[in-house]
Prior knowledge:
The protein is of the alpha/beta class. Helix content is 35%, strand content 20%. The protein is built from 10 helices and 10 strands. Strands 1-2-4-3-5-6-9-10 form an 8-stranded mixed sheet. Strands 7-8 form a two-stranded antiparallel sheet. A hairpin with a 2-residue loop joins β1 (5-14) and β2 (17-26). α1 (79-93) crosses α2. The longest helix is centred in the C-terminal third of the chain and has 17 residues, at 282-298.
Amino acid sequence: xxLQHTYSAxxxxxxxGDLAVGIWEPVGEITxxxxxxxxxxxxxxxxxxxxxxxxxxxxxxxxxxxxxxSNGIEGPAGMAAxxxxxxxxxxxxxxxxxxxxxxxxxxxxxxxxAYVHPERISRIVLVDGxxxxxxxxxxxxxxxxxxxxxxxxxxxxxxxxxxxxxLKLWRAHPAFADAWxxxxxxxxxxxxxxxxxxxxxxxxxxxxxxxxxxxLNTGSLPREAIAGISVPAVFVWVPRGLQNETxxxxxxxxxxxxxxxxxxxxxxxxxxxxxxxxVMSERGASAIAPIIAAELAELHL
Length: 301
């Protein structure tokens, strides 16, 4: 728990319901505000390790629709819907213009939000997501999700008798073999909601995950947004993927192609981390915090 921030949770009206938002306020002077956007099956508590590395910075982090305590929002998901929710949240909280930091799918949401509303977004930091993924052509929706997310997607349809049972599943996960923390346990416990029959289930629905994964990979708006990035953007990538495997979501060969095709995006490689631990670990947070801080510093020049 950060000693340099206080935490509160608010509900913001959006189309179809209320968006749950966590806000970490600095103790003392606020130097900057960022909006932090989590990944496809995560929640705002994915940023717990990052918060204490950014003293003076207010961190506003929503549970995206269909996730966490926003899982009761009605209506379709997709990158356009998430972008609209981000702007509605900024309006409700009086944020005229801010920097977005997105992890995984949250990076795609960041790119689309900045593309549709460039006047509201000052810069974007994309953490292991947001740029095109290389996937086989011709996959149907569920096969696409399985190819990209694998066991991560399968977990959404599992049921658990207790929080401890859920934590046991995650303790065996290769991504967290050397990165198990109290912050991770808090994040995982928050992920569970009652399933209506006495058991617990992950808050994110499989259907929402399918819709969003298909949209960010095949939708026209994400492709247009990536090609039309107009705000300053930095892309952070790591060598390992969701199962701590190599290569990660982005291979070195793909990164080389992306650097050539997107000359305005600045690329930063962070060693010895995987797709989860780049955000959800002390090492990962310590690695990306200077990148975030440097982008904020640019706003004051």
